[in-house]
What we know:
It is built from six helices and twelve strands. It is an alpha/beta fold. It has a single domain (14-235), classed as BirA Bifunctional Protein, domain 2, CATH 3.30.930. α3 (114-133) crosses α5 (206-220). The longest helix is centred in the middle third of the chain and has 20 residues, at 114-133. The radius of gyration is 17 Å and the shape is globular.
Amino acid sequence: MMHEPKFYKFTNNCVNVALLGLVPYEQGLSIQEKFFRLREEQKIGDIMLLLEHPPVITVGRRGKESNILLSQEELIARGIRVYHIDRGGDVTYHGPGQIVGYPILDLHNYGKDIRRFIWNIEEVFIQLLKNEYGITAGRVPSYTGVWVDNEKITSIGFAVKRWITKHGFAFNVNTNLEHFKWINPCGITDRSMTSLENITGHKHDITKVMLQVASYFAKIFQTDYQIIDKHEWSSWLKED
Length: 240
């Protein structure tokens, strides 16, 4: 039997943020699904997982295999697995140096407006980049995500079921941009990817940037947030 989590706060105006570190994709997906079910059952409040993944390719509901540019043999040689998942969007890459965020929110608390929700996610990174790094970022018509000129720095792909969100965003901080050559990112062939490191010319502390993401997320969504430790969040997932 699943233990009922004991949150520091269980309110509609606080997002609990868990920093998970480097997590294999399959494990991260399992953790996310468990929290999604708990949120759906109203056993927990809103939570956002911030983490990194080892190199992996994921394909969304509208994804095309043709947007994976490596052959099966090349994928195997590099140890790269491909996961077909239920988020929106096409093909994307996750890897070390990229902050992946899984906000698991009840949109009843945020206006029940999916377009506004996606706009707010984009706004988190537009404001963060401007205020913390002096980088002008914005949106591109017809494409989701956050762009610096014609280069994408944050990818977005969500699923929403019964107004609970799952999957999320991928913010390129110190990401190896060469790995995006393995795919047509999000099915786009006429634009490239960039990263915070690529723009500023130096690497950044991932934990520091994660905390910035949490802070700007709370600001844009007009909520409080608190960091919860591994002992706390992992205990909520244990069964008797």
